[in-house]
Amino acid sequence: MLSRAAWSLMLRKGGRGRREMHSPEAPARGEGKMPPYANWYAQRSYPMPEEPFCTELSAEQQALKEKEKGSWTQLSHAEKVALYRLQYHQTFAEMNRRSNEWKTVMGCVFFFCGFTALLIWWQRVYVYPPKPITLTDEWKAQQLQRMLDMKVNPVHGLASHWDYEKKEWKK
Amino acid sequence: MARLSHQKCTPDFHDKYGNAVLAGRTTFCIAVWTYVATQIGIEWTLSPVGRVIPKEWRD
C-alpha cells in the first residue's frame, strides 16, 4: 500500500535526520539503534544525552574539537554552530516543532469508524431477522393512538405531550 | 531562526498527505454512517413524540 511504503520511509528518514554527512553510526553498522533509543537522542525532558551525535569525526572536525579545548572566545560563530551540530542532533526549536501527525491519526480513526458502519450494514443485510410486525409504521401509529387513549403517563410522560383538544402534539 | 526552516525543506508523510487523509476519510465516515443510519432499515426506536401521527386502531 502506498501509505505503508511512505510510512516506513518516513520512519527511516526520521532516524537519520537530514544530516547524512554527520551520521553518528558507521554505515557498516546496519543494526544501529533508532531514536528514541539511540544514545545521542535528546528531548525537552531529557536534554543531555549520553553520547555526542557525531562520534566519527573527519580531520577537519577533529581539528575543531582541538580548538574547542582552548579559549572559546577564539571560535567564530560558524565554528560554534558546527560544534553544536557535532554534539547534538537537533536544536530545541527543531526537536520541539509541531507536526501534522494528528491529521493522519484522526484520518485513520475515522476510516475505521466508517469501516465499522460497513460491518453493521453487512450485519443488517445478512444477520438480522425480518422486522417484526410491531415495528412497522402502521402498527406503531395504531399503538400510539391506543396509548394516548389510555392516557399513558399523563403527568410528565407520553400523554402529557399530546394536545387532546387539537389532536396534535404540543409544541 | 534559520533552523526552523529546516523541517520545511523535507516534508514528511503527514505534511504531504495529512490534509487529504483527514478530509477524505472523514467524508467517508460521515457518508457511510449517514447511509447506514437512515437508508437500510435499522430500527432506532426513536420516541414517537413529535414524529408519529397516531392512527385509529379500533376497526
Can you describe what's shown?
The complex is a heterodimer of chains A (171) and B (59). Chain A is mainly alpha-helical. Among the domains of chain A are: 37-96, Cytochrome c oxidase subunit IV (Cytochrome C Oxidase, Chain D), CATH 1.10.442.10; 131-170, no CATH class. Chain A has helices spanning 2-16, 59-68, 77-87, 92-95, 101-126, 137-150; strands at residues 162-163, 168-169. In chain A, strands 1-2 form a two-stranded antiparallel ribbon. In chain A, strand 1 and strand 2 form a beta hairpin. The longest helix of chain A is centred in the middle third of the chain and has 26 residues, at 101-126. Chain B is an all-alpha fold and 59 residues long. Chain B has two helices and no strands. Chain B has helices spanning 6-9, 13-39. Chain B starts with 5 loop residues before the first helix and ends in a 20-residue tail after the last helix. The interface between A and B is large, with 46 and 40 residues.
Structural class of chain A: mainly alpha
Count of individual beta strands of chain B: 0
Could you tell me the radius of gyration of chain B in angstroms?
25 Å
CATH architecture call of one domain in chain A: Orthogonal Bundle
Shape of chain A: rod-shaped
Which CATH C-level class of one domain in chain A is it?
Mainly Alpha
Can you tell me the CATH topology of one domain in chain A? Cytochrome C Oxidase, Chain D
Query: What's the main sheet of chain B like?
Result: none
Could you describe the largest sheet of chain A, including whether it forms a barrel? 2 strands, antiparallel
Overall average pLDDT of chain B = 86
* Strand coverage percent of chain A: under 5%
Largest interface: A-B, 46 and 40 residues
Low-confidence stretches of chain A: 14-21, 25-30
